[in-house]
């Protein structure tokens, strides 16, 4: 069994033990039933009075009442504790995923993570709840019944104990097959969830490219495979249950045949025979359950294994031993001979860059040149494969991660909004959100004028991923979110690409005001965004190919000067286009 699961079970051992004791007590009382029946039958045979029969009936009712109450608390204890463990595992699973590094999520499908959290976890719960409950109960019931039966007749008991387990055995033999089939059902379900989830996230693209029929068909194919696998399970299942009934019937026949003879021969009384039939009845369900439970356990363990696969992932980016605090960050950033590769493909190499505290550096370069990768190294979203990144002169790997990230305000290239209010989105990184701070940030990001037009102002809910905002509004909301934290280092990754040049200029002017004493790292494809930076670096193919100020770079020629000329030309063309008469 998974050591992790064992740990949860051990933590709740007390509830299980109490449940087990209650279950055992109820089993003993339950098994007294056939005994009372026997006494009654023997009394009838001996010509008992009606009043004594009523007494037996009353005892039977009392017994059943007691069993009912005991079983109620038995189920409450074991099923209840299984729900508590399910709850704990779900919390731990989520917390664990939160700790994992960004890289993990890039090669794991969200739908798959969801399936494990929902479907696999509930399979585990069925194992540690009903599974364990019925398993222990069957063992106890069989042991007690066997004791009572042995006290009556050895041969008859042996017959029963040979035939009855065939019922469980059916399940145990077919179990591994069902188990394999079930696993493949589960896998397919993961695939379906992942597919649906991705489809809904990308619904705009699906619609824009009129891919609904294609997506529907692709989904139907997956779903068909799912039902095919499910039907395979049903086929095995279908063979299973009738076979078990057959064995139960067989046990009854054997009992009738052998027991009947014993009664005729006078070896046992009619009452004892009835008592035997009683045990057969009482044991029928537990025997069926035993097989079912073995199957539940197999499924539960398989599902726990799938959860363990995720739990076993170690976060790659963690606090170092003796992590350093960063109480008063200045905001100096330095790259020393930094190289980086994603799974072996080199993206950055030999990056040397010094950004003194309070200055602005701009990064330009062709698409795919490694700009986003470069800035992702500063908050340790990824880790350099060579060299080191320093903040305030200390390797970022030596800081407490929360301290490091707290001093950085980052606007990623693809902005993300949560399905919450605009205000909550802006205040996302704040420990104590307050309205003035949110407003101030929105003003700096030039979002405030737009907010004034929103129906509920800052309380306007922006929809999943912020779908109800325009691209430019989303970008400005993301800038406001970064600025609201009052960061020592502000990183804008192409964060002004969706706003017009006038708004851009306004935002940059505002930013220069608040960021006068802070460090800014700005990635852009537009010369207008970067020209005022203290330092501009040009990245090409993962290497810094040029560096300087706007003026020196222009004078030097090369990539930057080319880019400038091209954009100048475009602007002129646009201008002449506007002036041209409409044909
Ligand atoms: N998660 C990833 N896994 C593997 N390769 C990646 C990953 N992210 C980026 N890359 C690759 O790394 C290179 C640099 O990507 P990066 O996003 O840093 O470029 P960029 O300069 O920001 O481009 P753009 O201007 O288009 O935003 C690209 O070749 C890209 O394909
Ligand atoms: Mg990028």
TrEMBL record:
The entry's keywords: ATP-binding, Cell membrane, Membrane, Nucleotide-binding, Transmembrane, Transmembrane helix, Transport
Q: Pfam families this protein is in?
A: ABC_membrane (PF00664), ABC_tran (PF00005)
**Alphabetized InterPro entries for the sequence:** AAA+_ATPase (IPR003593), ABC1_TM_dom (IPR011527), ABC1_TM_sf (IPR036640), ABC_transporter-like_ATP-bd (IPR003439), ABC_transporter-like_CS (IPR017871), P-loop_NTPase (IPR027417), Type_1_exporter (IPR039421)
Q: Does the keyword Kinase apply?
A: no
Nucleotide-binding in keyword set: yes
What are the ABC transmembrane type-1 domain coordinates in residue numbering? Answer: 17-299
- What Gene3D superfamilies does the entry give? ABC transporter type 1, transmembrane domain, P-loop containing nucleotide triphosphate hydrolases
Boundaries of each ABC transporter domain copy? Answer: 333-566
Give the UniProt entry's GO cellular component terms: plasma membrane
Report how it sits in the membrane: Multi-pass membrane protein
Q: Which residues cross the membrane?
A: 16-41, 53-74, 132-152, 158-178, 238-257, 277-297
Single GO term (MF): ABC-type oligopeptide transporter activity
User: Where does the UniProt annotation locate this protein?
Assistant: Cell membrane
Q: Which PANTHER family match?
A: ATP-BINDING CASSETTE SUB-FAMILY B MEMBER 10, MITOCHONDRIAL, ATP-DEPENDENT PERMEASE MDL1, MITOCHONDRIAL
Name-wise, this protein is ABC transporter ATP-binding protein
């Amino acid at each position: 069994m998974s050591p992790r699961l064992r740990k949860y079970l051990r933590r709740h051992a007390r509830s299980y033990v109490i449940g087990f004791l209650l279950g055992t007590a109820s089993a003993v009382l339950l098994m007294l039933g056939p005994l009372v029946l026997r006494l009654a039958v023997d009394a009838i045979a001996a010509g008992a009075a009606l009043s004594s029969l009523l007494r037996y009936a009353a005892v039977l009712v009392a017994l059943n009442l007691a069993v009912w109450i005991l079983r109620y608390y038995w189920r409450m204890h074991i099923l209840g504790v299984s729900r508590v463990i399910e709850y704990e595992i779900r919390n731990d699973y989520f917390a664990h995923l939160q700790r994992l590094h960004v890289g993990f999520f890039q090669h794991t499908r969200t739908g798959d993570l969801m399936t494990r959290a929902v479907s696999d976890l509930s399979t585990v719960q069925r194992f540690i709840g009903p599974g364990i409950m019925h398993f222990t109960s069957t063992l106890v019931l069989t042991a007690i019944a066997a004791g009572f039966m042995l006290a009556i007749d050895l041969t008859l008991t042996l017959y029963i104990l040979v035939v009855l387990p065939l019922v469980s055995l059916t399940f145990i033999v077919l179990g591994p097959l069902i188990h394999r089939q079930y696993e493949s059902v589960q896998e397919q379900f993961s695939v379906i969830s992942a597919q649906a989830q991705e489809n809904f996230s990308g619904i705009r693209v699906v619609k824009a490219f009129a891919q609904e029929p294609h997506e529907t068909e692709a989904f139907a194919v997956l779903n068909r495979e799912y039902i095919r696998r499910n039907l395979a399970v049903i086929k095995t299942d279908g063979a299973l249950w009738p076979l078990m009934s057959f064995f139960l019937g067989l046990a009854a026949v054997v009992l009738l045949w052998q027991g009947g003879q014993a009664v005729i021969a006078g070896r046992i009384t009619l009452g004892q025979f009835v008592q035997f039939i009683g045990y057969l009845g009482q044991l029928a369900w537990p025997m069926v359950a035993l097989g079912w439970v073995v199957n539940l356990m197999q499924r539960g363990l398989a599902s726990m294994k799938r959860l363990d696969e995720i739990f076993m992932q170690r976060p790659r980016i963690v606090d170092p031993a003796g992590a350093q605090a960063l109480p008063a960050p200045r905001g100096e950033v330095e790259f020393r001979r930094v190289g980086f590769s994603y799974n072996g493909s080199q993206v950055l190499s030999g990056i040397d860059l010094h950004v003194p505290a309070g200055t602005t550096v701009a990064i330009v370069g062709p698409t795919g040149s490694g700009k986003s990768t470069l800035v992702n190294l500063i908050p340790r979203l990824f880790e350099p494969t060579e060299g080191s990144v320093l903040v305030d002169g200390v390797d970022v790997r030596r800081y407490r991660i929360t301290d490091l990230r707290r001093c950085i305000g980052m606007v990623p290239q693809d902005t993300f909004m949560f399905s919450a209010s605009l205000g909550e989105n802006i205040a996302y990184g704040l420990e104590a959100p307050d309205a003035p701070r949110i407003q101030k940030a929105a003003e700096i990001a030039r979002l405030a004028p737009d907010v004034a037009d929103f129906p509920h102002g800052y309380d306007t809910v922006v929809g999943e991923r912020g779908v109800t905002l325009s691209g430019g509004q989303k970008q400005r909301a993301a800038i406001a979110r970064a600025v609201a934290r009052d960061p020592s280092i502000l990183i804008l990754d192409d964060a002004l690409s969706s706003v017009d040049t006038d708004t851009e200029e306004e935002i940059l002017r505002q930013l220069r005001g608040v960021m006068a004493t802070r460090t800014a790292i700005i990635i852009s494809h537009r010369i207008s965004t970067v020209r005022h930076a203290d330092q501009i670096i040009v990245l090409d193919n993962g290497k810094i190919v040029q560096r300087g100020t706007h003026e020196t770079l222009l004078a030097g020629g090369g990539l930057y000067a080319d880019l400038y000329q091209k954009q100048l030309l475009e602007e002129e063309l646009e201008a002449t286009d506007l002036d041209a008469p409409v044909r």
